[in-house]
Design a protein that fits this description.
15 strands, 4-stranded mixed β-sheet, elongated, 385 residues, 5-stranded antiparallel β-sheet
């Protein structure tokens, strides 16, 4: 280390020069550039072997967010915090207060830009999934005040480039809905999580779809559906039952407006499979009017809470009703998904008899026939004089 002394000549108010001896320290810390100093923090020896990547310390910009030459006194130095043509001067108190207020305003604006999400807590503290956001930004002629957003998942993905090699980025999935039958799901990839969520939310707005609901609270019928390696059994439930399903399915039901449902999932629980399988099940369901026109029967509900008294929900629009008994079991066993699964399990023993007697372990149970209430039987056998 080299130590040097030099004399600093100052001019007092009276114009008399005065000299003071000032100690000046010089070392390699002040003589070398910043890049050379940062390189000294990285490993000097190159590690060999698969996966032995050297850990390099990231550079830190110590002057980030600071103005060179600016201090608490409020001095203006030409070339640092003032144009070169100006003179060295000290700001007045009003100018200094205005300058500080402007700096604070810029600082708050940058904080808002850096703010990740103004969202509620997600499913767990260590994952991004489940974060809830406010309504999206309004577009031209469209307002989304009634909508809310839910972040379904965030994943780190990568792709190979011939020029840059492996490039990492973030992929996000977002669901948006208004709680009244409308829902849209979108996914996007971007370098950061914030930008990927913003792009995914725009895609979700452009992919809105509407689903019918029974009494604006549940599905119309039980549905058994699958997508790739995910099997899902969606069951209709009475009022007050609640949402008993996967946490992602529960949030999507809230966005749609479904309040009572039971969903049993078997197989893969990948987020993309869950979303597609659930939407596939909602699209395959029929309203009572559509089913009555298709089968030609009255659609009747037997509710245990009402002592199994039959309630007609829908009738064929043509007015012609079939009089032959309707076989629920045969319709269930002839579903394409049930037939396919049974063929996969044992194709050699496949037959109509085997289809009827074989219990299906993966599919939903066949509902037993509804018993006729005893009160209705007594009324039928009652003789009126």
């Amino acid at each position: 280390m080299i130590r040097q002394f030099y004399h600093l000549v100052l001019v007092s108010k009276c114009g008399c020069p005065s000299q003071y001896a000032v100690r000046y320290k010089s070392s390699f810390m002040s003589s070398l550039p910043a890049d050379t100093l940062w390189k000294s923090t990285s490993p000097t020896t190159k590690r060999s072997g698969r996966g032995k990547r050297a850990v390099v310390k990231k550079k830190i910009d110590l002057g980030k967010g600071k103005i060179l030459g600016e201090g608490t006194v409020g001095m203006e130095w030409p070339g640092l915090n003032a144009p070169l043509g100006n003179k060295i001067r000290r700001r007045e108190e009003s100018e200094q207060n205005e300058f500080l207020a402007k700096q604070e305003e810029n600082k708050n604006a940058k904080k808002l830009q850096r703010q990740k999400f103004a969202a509620d807590r997600g499913w767990t503290g260590g994952q991004w999934g489940g974060l809830k956001f406010g309504p999206p930004e309004p577009a031209e002629g469209h307002s989304y005040e009634d909508f809310s957003c839910v972040l379904l998942n965030v994943a780190r993905v990568s792709h190979m480039s011939m020029e840059r090699g492996r490039i990492y980025s973030m992929r996000s999935g977002v669901a948006i809905g208004n709680g009244n039958g409308l829902i849209g799901v979108g996914g996007a990839t971007a370098p950061t999580i914030v930008s990927s969520v913003r792009k995914a939310r725009i895609k979700a707005i452009n992919r809105l779809q509407f689903f019918e609901r029974w009494e604006e609270r549940t599905v119309f019928e039980d549905v058994y559906v699958n997508h790739h390696k995910t099997w899902m059994y969606i069951r209709k439930q009475p009022a007050g039952y609640g949402l008993r399903c996967h946490r992602a399915i529960r949030d999507m039901c809230k966005l749609i407006g479904i309040k009572d449902i039971y969903v049993k999932i078997e197989g893969s629980k990948t987020m993309l499979n869950l979303v597609k399988c659930f939407f596939k099940g909602l699209r395959t369901q029929e309203t009572y009017e559509q089913k009555a026109n298709r089968v030609g029967y009255h659609i009747v509900e037997f509710d245990q809470l009402r002592h199994n008294f039959p309630v007609v929900l829908a009738s064929p629009s043509s007015g012609e009703v079939n009089t032959e008994p309707y076989n629920d079991y045969e319709e269930y066993m002839n579903q394409e998904l049930v037939l396919r699964d049974q063929r996969k399990r044992d194709p050699e023993k496949w037959s109509s008899f085997y289809k009827a007697v074989m219990p299906h372990a993966r599919g939903p149970p066949v509902l037993p026939p509804m018993p006729v209430p005893s009160l209705l039987g007594d009324i039928k056998n009652l003789k009126v004089d």
